[in-house]
Amino acid sequence: MTTADETAPLVVAGLLEWRDWLEDLAERFAMLAPPSHSTGATADPWHWERACTRLVTVVADRTRAESGWYGHCEQVLGWFLADNGVEEERASEIVEDAIGGRFGSWIAPDATVLDAVSSQFARALGETG
Q1: 0.85 cut: is pTM over it?
Q2: Which residue, 57, 73, 89, 124, is most buried by CB atoms nearer than 10 A?
């Protein structure tokens, strides 16, 4: 990036990519939401576990699990919880407890780690109700 003429198209492309990602997430959030946007103990834990697994997988894929990808993953999980009526502070606690330092840069979580994170995510939401 050197001149405005060279930089502007790059900025526009970046903003369009970000918008596409946000629209994709909105669609996923709608598909993954528990029935009637139930929160906590009123929703079957399976819904929360499935949502966590799918969201972590798509974030790891979208970011290619590059350096610090898990920070964005935490953000996306928090957004999903907020979209389903979980207060921001509680959502942050749930996500931190679920991930608990299990993710690292440059590597997507294996199935065992992903299962553990998703199970903890669902358990914590069951305690929210």
Answers
A1: yes
A2: 73
